[in-house]
Write a structure and sequence with these properties.
Two copies of one chain form a homodimer.
Chain A: H1 3-14, H2 17-26, E1 31-32, H3 33-40, H4 44-56, E2 60-65, E3 68-73, H5 76-102
Antiparallel strand pairs in A: 1-3, 2-3
Helix pairs in contact in A: 2-3, 3-4
Chain B binds a DNA duplex through helix 4.
DNA sequence: CGATTATATGATTATATAGTCATATAAACA
DNA sequence: TGTTTATATGACTATATAATCATATAATCG
């Protein structure tokens, strides 16, 4: 097990569209599963799996309150990473677009 | 195809240990395949596949010079993302460690 | 206690991915 | 032209992943 394996774990966790939708929604703050899955338009069971996976990867906090389980972003850097990825993506898309226009 | 699919493409590309090794090596600057695969200790064919994949994801530049193909990081933000992931990872590992000590 | 609500999980399926080996392509050079 | 060197790719295998459906667990409340 290399150091890159641990780095990869964090980044791989962020590199999936359902999980990105969850992260985006959790920018608003702590939310329970019952709020998250309708907000992102995924099944309860699938959402639950991704949430648990993100806790294991060290990306989310989990807090229990009665029947409800609340999840929240654990590190502000997660939002920074997503924002940087958005920036790269935007630059790539406009770049490809201007190449298409030039052709 | 959602916007999160494109973000995920960038982040998923970064979330794999062989590719992280390549990215780490390319911090030194532009390098050809013949330098990259021995440096990261992977097969030529596997390295080539990852390099091509990273070009498709918009993460690397490719430049041809004679028989050699040179690859380089395309966006400085890629290094920022990797560094932020390292930070999160480090914080997680030390956090888990202090929890173990407390137990 | 029985019903309801919130969440997690087992089993399964379809798909994606990484890696390997052998081989193809293509430039350079004797 | 034939050989060498650098890179890419086809075919294949093993493994991982996401999603779904049905069901289990566990807290709450009448």
């Amino acid at each position: 097990m290399n150091i890159t394996h641990y780095q990869a774990e964090v980044l791989k966790t962020l590199g999936q569209s359902t999980r990105l939708k969850i992260i985006d929604f959790l920018r608003l703050g702590e939310r329970c599963v019952c709020e998250i899955f309708p907000a992102i338009g995924e099944e309860q069971s699938n959402t639950s799996r991704h949430l648990n996976m993100m806790v294991s990867s060290g990306i989310l906090f989990r807090r229990k309150e009665g029947v409800k389980i609340f999840y929240a972003l654990k590190h502000p850097e997660i939002m920074e990473i997503v924002d940087l990825a958005t920036l790269i993506m935007t630059r790539e898309i406009t770049g490809r677009h201007s190449l298409l226009q030039a052709a």
